[in-house]
Amino acid sequence: MVTAAGAPLVTPLKAELRCFQAGRYCVDVSRNGRAKYVNRPYSLVPRACCSGNPLSSSAGDRLCGGGGVGSRNSGGDGELPRPRAFAPLLCDSEDIRLGNGASQFSGAKDYHIGSSNGLPCPELSQKIVVAVDIDEVLGNFVSAISQFIAERYSLHQAVSEYHVYEFAKIWRCSKDEANIRVHEFFESSYFKTAIHPIPGAQQAIRNLSKVCNMSIVTSRQYAIQDHTIEWINKHYPDLFQKIYFGNHFALNGKSIPKSEICRSLGAKVLIDDNPGYAIECAEAGIKVLLFDYENSYPWSKTEFVNGHPLITRVHNWEEVELHLASWIFPTGNTTSSNFVKEQFL
Q1: What DSSP designation does 107 have?
Q2: InterPro entries under this entry (predicted)?
């Protein structure tokens, strides 16, 4: 379930070894605070101190490396015991987000999506932060709104006729009128029932969420945040850490650029179908996978993004997995879908 950003996701466990046995990640090593651990096959490795004061470099050296306490080759009396069998340690979404160097962001409205996905997570410093758009990437928004417009305004246009993602130009009306029609769509049954997951997206997100910190960055408006969260929880449960609303094309409220949201959460990659957002984020130094499902999105084919070193075109979710795998696992034959399955499954 979703909770408003800032609310605690997991009640902090006190400094007791039982939290390790319960599948959590806190063990008291400093007496004054807690150190967070992630799971490794050979030992517990401290990541950061929860007491409010980060571990000093000397303390970190003693705890993490050079044969110190908690290291694989430690021979000291204070060595943490090498576990023979244990439950996976779970990473709370808030800790994953902040562990990637992101700071709290109060510009766009953001919401936690559940708590932990229940999967063992790689070392936090190795988790790549991936931002994912909703419409035309996770769900088929354009086909749903086209059905509504055809019924309400007798304008019959197929998805193949949307040469730009600017509804005013497609419907041949003013921007204000287009925004009004979009909000009428939000109140219709089409918005509630006609948007379905893009083929391949659900399994791909399940795979990627094991090795990536996945968050949603959408231009959707605050007015539809409740239904959006409900839709994500229904079709992509416990797979995304947070969702950010940019509030673009809204009747009320300030809009936040996607590039600003992505930078603030530390995203290294954006998956989006809109060339405008692709260029905006690429110019901010963020890699973009420009999504054009089965080569069927006319608006994604604009040539002004061609040749940009940070923008890569993809045509399905298998290609998304292949490209992300090549960045996360740079060694190996990432042209093979078998390689991706071996890494993600």
Answers
A1: S
A2: 5'(3')-deoxyribonucleotidase, 5_3-deoxyribonucleotidase-like, HAD-like_sf, HAD_sf
- Block residue for tokens 């970190």: 60
Model confidence at 112, pLDDT cuts 50, 70, 90, reads low
Mark whether 203 and 98 lie in a shared domain: yes
Q: Which two tokens stand for residue 65?
A: 């490396």
Q: By the 8 A CB rule, do 170 and 161 touch?
A: yes
273: DSSP letter: S
Same domain? For 146 and 134 the reply is no
Residue 24 sits in the same domain as residue 38 = yes
CB atoms within 10 A of CB 55: 20
Helix or strand run (H / E) with residue 168: helix 167-171
Q: Residue 135 is which amino acid?
A: D
Nearest-angstrom CA–CA distance, 223 and 183: 9
CA 139-140-141 angle, 5° bins: 100
- Residue count (the chain): 345
* Token representation of residue 21: 């046995």
Q: Which helix (H) or strand (E) holds 314?
A: strand 311-314
Number of C-beta neighbours around residue 48 at 10 A: 17
Burial of 115 (0-12, 13-18, 19+ CB in 10 A): middle
Burial 215-250, CB ≥16 within 10 A → b, else e: bbbbbbbbbbbeebbebbbebbebbbbbbbbbbebb
Reported as a single tens digit per residue, the pLDDT across 90-104 is: 333 333 232 333 333
Q: Which domain holds residue 154?
A: 141-193
* Sheet architecture: strand order including 26-27: 26-27, 35-39, 44-49
CATH number at 265 reads 3.40.50.1000
Catalytic sites, residue numbers: 133, 135
